Amino acid sequence: MTSMLVALVLCGAGEAPAAGTLEAALDGTVVRITVDGALFTCYKFAPEQKYPYFWPVNGPRSGASVTTETSEPYPHHRSLFFGCDRVNGGNYWQEGNERGRIVSGTPKILTARGPRVEFEDRCRWRRPGAPEPLSDVRRIACSAPSRDVRIIDVEITLTAEEDVRIAQTNHSLFSARVVPALAVPKGGRLVNAEGALGEKATFGAASAWCDFSGDNGGKVEGLAILDWPRNPWSPCKWFTRDYGFFSPTPLNWVGEAGFKLAKGSTLALKYRVVVHAGNEKDADIAGIYREWARQAGAPPAPRGE
User: Fold this and answer.
1) How far is it, in rounded angstroms, from Cα 62 to Cα 55?
2) Residue 87 — φ and ψ, nearest 5°?
3) Of 273, 31, 268, which is closest to residue 156 (Cα–Cα)?
4) What DSSP state is assigned to residue 237?
5) What one-character DSSP code corresponds to residue 3?
6) Span between the terminal Cα atoms of the chain, in Å
7) Which of 190, 258, 270, 265 is nearest to 229 (CA)?
8) Which residues pair with 160 in a beta bridge?
9) Radius of gyration of the CA atoms of the chain, in A
10) Where are the domains of the chain?
11) If you ran DSSP here, which 8-state letter would residue 287 be given?
12) SS (H, E, C) 80-112
């Protein structure tokens, strides 16, 4: 009996078995990420798009996306994306490429196969008849520490190509829009690191992370966004909506002065997306955040003005 218990412990009994091999491949205007040959996500960067974004973002048990590429209300929300409105008068968020768009420089795959795959994209923020206010370099890594967890790590470094002012806006920075089944009106669960539930309790609250979960094709699955503890505004205030949108963004609360970056300066931001089976407790999002936060050794980046 004792030897059996020892064997079970050594084999990691009770834990979800480790996932297999990830692969990243450039396929036309998408980067396809698979886990054991099954599609996990695509990074889409076609030249006609408003901005690059991830879709689908498939749950580990259902194989169906936990995010929506477009849905009412606000069909311009594209799954999992980074954008911003009111940047030197341009709109790099809502539909209408003439108002501004974020153009991919074509991703470069850095690690194509293994327990972790990685690629990089260099993007330009363009608007007809206006100087480019920003460029960015984004490094993206995907991993699958268990069969019930998929991770997308996103690092984005913005460089001001001109003096930049971003006026107060809720349309800003890293964001996700989950499928209606995970949204609160359909019985989904929106919760932050402090255990606050729903839009009313989480909107405008500073928190290390937020999570949506719900029934996704007969399987309970969810998506969490974790805000890196060394991001400039950490813990960040969150813009949350019960209908399925959430974003760690301080720019809705900057006031009339807005946020400024001097020409040549940079702003580095980092996020972790956890796609998981079960709800936030089943997936131990708090534990995943604590382990990730232990890596944060550098001092916080400057806040700008």
Assistant:
1) 15
2) -100, 105
3) 268
4) B
5) H
6) 65
7) 270
8) 134
9) 19
10) 26-293
11) H
12) EEEEEEEECCEEECCCCHHHCEEEECCCEEEEC
Residue 123, both tokens: 């993007």
Closest CA to 202 of 224, 187, 219: 224
Alpha carbons 32 and 72: distance in angstroms, whole number: 26
* Location of structure tokens 């009313």: 200
User: How would you write the pLDDT of the chain (305 residues) with one tens digit per residue?
Assistant: 333 333 333 333 344 556 679 999 999 999 999 999 999 999 999 999 999 999 999 999 999 999 999 877 777 789 999 999 999 999 999 989 999 999 999 999 999 999 999 999 999 999 999 999 999 999 999 999 999 999 999 999 999 999 999 999 999 999 999 999 999 999 999 999 999 999 999 999 999 999 999 999 999 999 999 999 999 999 999 999 999 999 999 999 998 899 999 999 999 999 999 999 999 999 999 999 999 999 876 444 444 44
Exposure string (b/e) for 269-292, b if CB count within 10 Å is 16 or more? Answer: bbbbbbbbbbbbeebebbebbeeb
Reported pTM: 0.91
CA distance linking residue 279 with residue 171, whole number of Å: 27
∠ CA 224-227-232, rounded to 5°? 165
Fold of 26-293: Beta-galactosidase; Chain A, domain 5 (2.70.98)
What are the structure tokens assigned to 181, written together? 């089944």
Name the maximum alpha-carbon separation found in the chain. 76
Rounded to whole angstroms, how far apart are CA atoms 169 and 87? 10
CA atoms of 302 and 6, how far apart (whole Å)? 50
- In contact, 136 and 174? CB cutoff 8 Å: no
